[in-house]
Amino acid sequence: MTINLLGSYRNGNYDVTIFSDGTKIRENDLDFFEAQFPENIDLKITDYCDVNCAFCHENSTVHGEHSILDAEFFRTLRPYTELAIGGGNPLSHPELIPFLINLKKSKILANLTVNQVHFEKHYNLLKHLMDKELIRGLGVSLVNPTDKFISMVQSLDNLIIHTINGIISKNQISKLYDKNLKVLILGYKNIRRGKDYYSESVDQNIEMMYNLLKYGLTEHFEIVSFDNLALNQLRVKSLISKSLWDEFYMGDDGQHTMYIDLVKREFSKSSTCFERHPLMDDIDNMFAVVKTIK
Ligand code: SF4
User: Is the CB of residue 182 less than 8 Å from the CB of residue 222?
Assistant: First the structure.
């Protein structure tokens, strides 16, 4: 895969450079980075989903509503801002493709997260969207690591398998070993259906994952990354050197990132934070509020 420079911009007191493989570099002469606007927005565009996962922390169902994909704040996003678009099932949104076309015109970098079920069903569409650079990165939530799924994953660049800490079993993760795959481990969200589903077996799976990490899980993958919730649940800081942590930790929720629920037209610092505020017209104003959320 050829790695190209996608773009660079100034944000608050630092410069950001982004490459086509998703690598991001922040630079300044200070010992801290203070953002004026979010580098990355977790954007929920629909509550509709037909997979009905028992642990779904968004409570997505076939009765879930789609958002209106037009809001004033989109016009205030800077080029190379990244959007992590999800749902529900974002592929079910009837306006998704025109939305992605508009984002590309504005040089906004769209990443999409879909479930394995929808990935397999809509593989050709997703490949087309990636080939046309309407999607820069694709996250696929793992259901079952079959050989067919793994070969489909291997056929696309910039695809990351999403796994949920506490849900994925040792047997499932070991089937992904040594195949040059990229994996993102997401923390278990103990809210909504995630709260109903929670049991001792979730904790046992979390402990199992901690032990796998302790004894070299990362050696079996091209990349292993974590969201902040998983970093905390898996005590990753205790497993690596301070210099590695300082090099790779991307900051607390709300420092460079934020969450927008476009269905309910509200925002917060993350999807698990219940201090929500009504959508505003300007991203800088919303981000200023996000920074005040404890
Ligand atoms: S977890 Fe994802 S795939 Fe499962 S019901 Fe929720 S939105 Fe759908």
Answer: yes
The first and second tokens of residue 279, run together, are 């959508």
Q: What integer pLDDT is reported at residue 33 of this predicted model?
A: 96
The closest alpha carbon to 192, from 274, 133, 263, belongs to: 274
Cα-to-centroid distance, 49 and ligand 1 (Å): 6
Section 119-137 average pLDDT? 97
Retrieve residue 74's tokens.
């989109």
Asked if omega into 88 is within 30° of 0 (cis), the reply is yes
Q: Are 60 and 47 in contact (CB under 8 A)?
A: yes
Percentage of the chain surpassing pLDDT 90? 96
Q: Which residues line ligand 1 (CB under 6 A)?
A: 49, 51-53, 56, 58, 60, 87-89, 115, 141
Taking CA atoms only, the protein residue closest to ligand 1 atom 1 is 56
The CA-based dihedral angle spanning residues 136, 142, 143, 145, taken in that order and rounded to the nearest 10 degrees: 110
Q: According to the model, what pLDDT value does residue 21 have? A: 85
Question: For 148-172, b where at least 16 C-beta lie within 10 A, e where not — what string?
Answer: ebeebbeeeebbbbbbbbbbbeeee
Residues in the chain: 294
Distance 99 CA to ligand 1 centre (A): 21
Q: How many helices (H) and strands (E) does the chain have?
A: 10, 13
Q: Cβ distance 18 to 109 under 8 Å?
A: yes
Q: What is the CATH number of domain 5-290?
A: 3.20.20
Tokens matching residue 201: 């077996």
The single-letter code of the amino acid at 159 is L
Whether the predicted model's global pTM rises above the 0.90 cut: yes
Provide mean pLDDT across the span 17-21: 92
Q: In angstroms, what is the span from residue 115 Cα to ligand 1's centroid?
A: 7
Domain boundaries, the chain: 5-290
Do residues 92 and 66 lie in contact, with contact meaning Cβ atoms separated by under 8 Å? yes
**Ligand 1 centroid vs 163 CA: distance in angstroms?**
12
